[in-house]
Amino acid sequence: MASDTGLFIQCLKKPQNMRTDKDLKVIYSFLHGMEALSGLREHALQSLCNIVRYEFHEANDIIYYQGEVASCWYILLSGSVFIEGSMFLPRSR
Questions:
Q1: CA 45 to CA 18: how far, in whole Å?
Q2: pTM here?
Q3: What is the C-alpha to C-alpha distance for residues 64 and 29, in angstroms, rounded to an integer?
Q4: What's the pLDDT score for residue 74?
Q5: Residue 5 per-residue DSSP state
Q6: Which PROSITE patterns is this protein grouped with (predicted)?
Q7: Half-sphere exposure of residue 44, counting CA atoms within 13 Å on the CB side?
Q8: Which of 20, 49, 68, 77 is most deeply packed, by most CB within 10 A?
Q9: Would you say residue 93 has pLDDT above 80?
Q10: Alpha-helix residue ranges (DSSP H) falling in 1-93
Q11: Is residue 82's pLDDT more than 70?
Q12: Average pLDDT, the chain
């Protein structure tokens, strides 16, 4: 799993226009196994693979403030996040 996650992150860090078919397959394979994305049709998930990107945030970084309109959403790979006083952890694959 750790090496799978490492390869996934490596593929996500590549500029979107530099990703190979192999990179897109790695990204698809990882995203396909996520419960949050299980309702997406294959074409939608493949489209997502072309635009998804990797971000790293330090502890205590604020990503959104209450009331802000979000322009994207995040998949938590490690660590935890607090939302309205509740802590959320990433699910294991």
A1: 19
A2: 0.80
A3: 28
A4: 86
A5: H
A6: CNMP_BINDING_3 (PS50042)
A7: 5
A8: 49
A9: no
A10: 2-13, 21-32, 42-51
A11: yes
A12: 88
